[in-house]
């Protein structure tokens, strides 16, 4: 899988801007390279500009400024039907008046593919998504998951090099969604096609992607592989948006060797990795993952007194809401293992964390 | 720790309880809790609901039955009703029963005698003129013949046959007696035969009317073809408008929709008359064309009081009935379909023709049926702007209702029109499927 940095990227957004009303920018100065065969997810809350980016790539929206290149060729002025990009829509957009097989044959027919070849390709694409027996059905006779499979098959049947998916699993229930995530991922692996995937579901993004671009307010906040995104968020937005996160606001006292000493607003000090904070004296926000916090006596460098507010039993772990250094919503996940700390609401204990698990980020 | 043995409120019902809730009797009929069959007790519980629903629609039902269905049924019944002849000429009707016009030239003497007796009685009751006009619809000259014979019938004595022929030679013609015999029943097909340009021949067989008197089939044909033309033009003009309306932002499309509906708030007569102002020979359009030098003052176009006028005016009037169903169907077609088609490699035209258009067909069906059925029975506009070549069958029906007073023929024409519309509707259902028609 390309990581977009080494070889020449396949899809390039070069200083792309987009505005609908001429007053505000929906996409601000987007620079992004997507490698051939990569599975890249655009993740962000609604209104963050991720779908607009996808639509510009598909050709349904025009960039206000900047250039989009596909395989070195600028495609700004190429109409959507000549871009040769497969697309899976949010509501599937299967043509209701055609059968499943006719839906799949459509992109081949408009390309004037010979009849015999169309039949073979349609059959192969249907078999790929385990829908071989459903060719004669109408989309309305299929379940949501089956429609989704057909939509994926249709976007792939004409062998495009790039496939765009716009929240394709949004309408499915949780279990089906997880199953489809694996199926799409497997299809991607076996075909080696480049996929640009848009979602607002962070779990989906982490499961499927080679790299994730986190969008907020028209800007890519961070572009990283999933584990980096989760373990080493670069901004407080990413830390907050991906997974659960404890945030402690404070002021940098001193920085030495990439470590910051931070005075927390609620009282007390903590050492943290100086990831994205200013010099001594500037405001910062500390980010600590709930599962990296230890409860009870320990010899870790950063310690604070904690009062247990609420306990929620979740089977594999116990979610514990505490009040720490003046913050009421400090969450700790206590694993449900032999010998774990038994806590009770109202009890006072100590929480502690490693300096490398605590990241000093921007004070947003 | 466990409380399972205490049997909390969420305890599942035991097997015995489940069996008691709905028991199967020995015959296999489901029984309700009190032992009555389940079906019966369901019907009982629904009866009140049904009664309530019926009572709610009752006033409207009564109103419609009384003011719409009953008069129409009565009117349509007139197309076969012929009670006036057997009522007024019972003796003649009885005497003619045995006579076969194909076998003998004239009926037996008994028929002549019966006619004279009937005629005397009718003259006294002053009803012979009404019977005469009734028969005049079938054979011209009958009205005069009856009036003349009525005046002199009481003076005929002895040889009735000679006496009647002496009053008028028509009584010596086989056709006169055939007509009397053919219309002696209480019910008759005569109006329907006239409505399709047929009549009874001299010996009672059904023959086509002389070429010059054949007008109704021609009118039916013209009505059908003009209605189709109007449906076609409204579709041609309405489709792009509906497409535009369905794809504009809500604010703009609502404004434009008001413009589409605007004609509804103007009187039909005003709209039709304005077309006369525009299209007549000395009208706005012709004047403009002459002023521009495009046509000669001597050769002004005749755009109204003919078929062109009817098509133009009716297209304008019926256009909203095409646009609205089209719009409401197009509104439900998500734009993502066309986008999907384009992303799959279809040009704008292919995406429209293979993906958008097929999904708008239910709207076309609804609009076309609406416009076609409205125009096939349209009356006012063709009457005002149709001249002679642009009138419909409905104008002829109106003529027979209000001018010639031949209500039977009017009813027969109306029945044929009704059957034609229902037949087309059936055909449409077979080809397109009525459940494919959507109004929104």
From TrEMBL, chain A:
Q: What class of enzyme is it?
A: translocase
Please name the GO terms that the record assigns under molecular function. ABC-type polyamine transporter activity; ATP binding; ATP hydrolysis activity
CC terms in the record's Gene Ontology section: ATP-binding cassette (ABC) transporter complex
- Give the E.C. number(s): 7.6.2.11
Question: Which taxonomic lineage does the organism of this UniProt entry have?
Answer: Bacteria, Pseudomonadati, Pseudomonadota, Alphaproteobacteria, Rhodobacterales
Describe the family membership recorded for this protein in Swiss-Prot or TrEMBL. Belongs to the ABC transporter superfamily. Spermidine/putrescine importer (TC 3.A.1.11.1) family.
The record lists the catalysed reaction(s) as: ATP + H2O + polyamine-[polyamine-binding protein]Side 1 = ADP + phosphate + polyamineSide 2 + [polyamine-binding protein]Side 1
Q: What are the entry keywords?
A: ATP-binding, Cell membrane, Membrane, Nucleotide-binding, Translocase, Transport
In terms of superkingdom, the source organism counts as Bacteria
Q: Where is the ABC transporter domain?
A: 11-242
This one is known as Spermidine/putrescine import ATP-binding protein PotA
What's its job? Part of the ABC transporter complex PotABCD involved in spermidine/putrescine import. Responsible for energy coupling to the transport system.
How does this polypeptide assemble, per the annotation? Answer: The complex is composed of two ATP-binding proteins (PotA), two transmembrane proteins (PotB and PotC) and a solute-binding protein (PotD).
From TrEMBL, chain B:
Which keywords does this chain's UniProt record carry? Cell membrane, Membrane, Transmembrane, Transmembrane helix, Transport
Signal peptide bounds: none
Tell me which residues make up the ABC transmembrane type-1 domain.
220-428
Instruction: Identify one Gene Ontology CC term for this UniProt entry.
Output: plasma membrane
The annotated topology with respect to the bilayer is:
Multi-pass membrane protein
User: Any transmembrane segments, and where?
Assistant: 53-73, 224-246, 255-278, 311-329, 361-380, 407-428
Basic and acidic residues bias locations: 13-26
Q: What is its main location?
A: membrane
Annotated spans, Disordered: 1-26
Which Gene3D superfamilies does the UniProt record give? Answer: MetI-like
Where does the UniProt annotation locate this protein? Cell membrane
Q: Name one GO biological process term.
A: transmembrane transport
Do the record's keywords include Phosphoprotein? no
Q: Which family does it belong to?
A: Belongs to the binding-protein-dependent transport system permease family. CysTW subfamily.
Protein name (database record):
Putative spermidine/putrescine transport system permease protein
């Amino acid at each position: 899988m390309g990581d977009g940095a080494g070889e020449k990227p396949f899809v390039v957004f070069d200083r792309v801007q987009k505005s609908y009303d001429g007053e505000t920018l929906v996409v601000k100065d987007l620079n992004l390279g997507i490698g051939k065969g990569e599975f890249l997810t655009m993740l962000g809350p609604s209104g963050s500009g991720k779908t607009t980016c996808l639509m510009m790539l598909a050709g349904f929206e025009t960039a206000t400024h900047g250039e989009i290149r596909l395989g070195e060729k600028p495609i700004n002025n190429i109409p959507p039907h000549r871009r040769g990009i497969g697309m899976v829509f949010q509501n599937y957009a299967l043509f209701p008046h055609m059968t499943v097989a006719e839906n799949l044959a459509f992109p081949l027919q408009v390309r004037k593919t010979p009849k015999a070849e169309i039949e073979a390709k349609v059959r192969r694409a249907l078999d790929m998504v385990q829908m071989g027996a459903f060719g004669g059905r109408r989309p309305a006779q299929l379940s949501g998951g089956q429609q989704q499979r057909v939509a994926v098959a249709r976007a792939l049947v004409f062998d495009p090099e790039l496939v765009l998916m716009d929240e394709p699993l949004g309408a499915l229930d949780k279990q089906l969604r997880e199953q489809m995530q694996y199926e799409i991922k497997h299809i991607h692996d076996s075909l080696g096609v480049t996929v640009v995937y848009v979602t607002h579901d962070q779990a989906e993004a982490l499961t499927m992607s080679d790299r994730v671009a986190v969008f907020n307010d028209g800007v890519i906040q961070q572009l990283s592989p999933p584990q980096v995104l989760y373990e080493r968020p670069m901004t407080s937005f990413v830390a907050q948006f991906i997974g659960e996160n404890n945030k402690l606001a404070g002021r940098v006292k001193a920085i030495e060797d990439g470590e910051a000493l931070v005075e927390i607003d609620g009282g007390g000090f903590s050492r943290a990795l100086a990831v994205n904070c200013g010099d001594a004296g500037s405001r910062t926000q500390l980010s600590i993952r709930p599962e990296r916090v230890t409860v009870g006596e320990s010899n870790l460098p950063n310690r604070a007194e904690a009062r247990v507010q609420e306990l929620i039993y979740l089977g594999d772990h116990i979610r514990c809401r505490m009040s720490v250094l003046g913050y009421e919503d400090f969450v700790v996940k206590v694993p449900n293992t032999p010998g774990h700390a038994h806590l009770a609401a109202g009890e006072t204990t100590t929480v502690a964390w490693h300096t490398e698990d605590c990241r000093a980020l921007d004070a947003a | 720790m466990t409380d399972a043995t205490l049997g909390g409120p969420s305890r599942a019902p035991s097997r015995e309880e489940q069996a008691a809730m709905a028991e199967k009797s020995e015959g296999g009929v489901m029984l309700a809790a009190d032992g009555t069959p389940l079906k019966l007790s369901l019907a009982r519980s629904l009866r009140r609901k049904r009664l309530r629903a019926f009572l709610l629609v009752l006033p409207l039902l009564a109103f419609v039955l009384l003011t719409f269905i009953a008069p129409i049924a009565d009117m349509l019944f007139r197309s076969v009703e012929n009670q006036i002849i057997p009522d007024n000429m019972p003796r003649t009707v009885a005497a003619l029963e045995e006579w076969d016009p194909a076998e003998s030239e004239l009926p037996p003497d008994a028929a002549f005698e019966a006619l004279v007796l009937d005629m005397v009685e009718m003259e006294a009751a002053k009803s012979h003129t009404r019977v005469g006009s009734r028969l005049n619809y079938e054979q011209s000259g009958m009205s005069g013949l009856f009036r003349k014979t009525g005046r002199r019938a009481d003076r005929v004595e002895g040889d009735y046959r000679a006496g009647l022929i002496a009053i008028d030679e028509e009584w010596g013609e086989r056709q006169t007696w055939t007509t009397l015999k053919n219309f002696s029943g209480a019910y008759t097909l005569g109006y329907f035969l006239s409505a399709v340009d047929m009549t009874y021949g001299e010996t009672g067989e059904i023959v086509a009317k002389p070429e010059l008197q054949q007008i109704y089939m021609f009118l039916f044909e013209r009505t059908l073809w003009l209605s189709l033309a109007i449906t076609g033009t409204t579709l041609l003009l309405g489709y792009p408008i509906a497409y535009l309306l369905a794809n504009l932002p809500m604010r703009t499309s609502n404004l434009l929709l008001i413009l589409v509906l605007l004609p509804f708030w103007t009187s039909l007569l005003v709209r039709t008359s304005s077309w006369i102002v525009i299209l007549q020979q000395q009208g706005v359009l012709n004047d403009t064309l002459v002023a521009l030098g495009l046509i000669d003052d001597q050769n002004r176009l005749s755009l109204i009081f003919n078929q062109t006028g009817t098509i133009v005016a009716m297209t304008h009037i019926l256009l909203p009935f095409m646009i609205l169903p089209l719009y409401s169907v197009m509104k439900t077609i998500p734009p993502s379909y066309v986008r999907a088609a384009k992303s799959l490699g279809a040009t704008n035209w292919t995406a429209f023709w293979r993906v958008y258009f097929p999904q708008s067909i239910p709207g076309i069906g609804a609009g076309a049926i609406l416009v076609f059925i409205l125009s096939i029975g349209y009356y006012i506009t063709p009457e005002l702007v149709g001249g002679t070549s642009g009138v419909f069958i409905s104008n002829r029906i109106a003529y027979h209702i209000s001018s010639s007073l031949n209500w039977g023929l009017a009813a027969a024409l109306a029945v044929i029109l009704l059957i034609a519309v229902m037949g087309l509707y059936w055909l449409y259902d077979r080809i397109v499927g009525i459940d494919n028609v959507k109004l929104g």
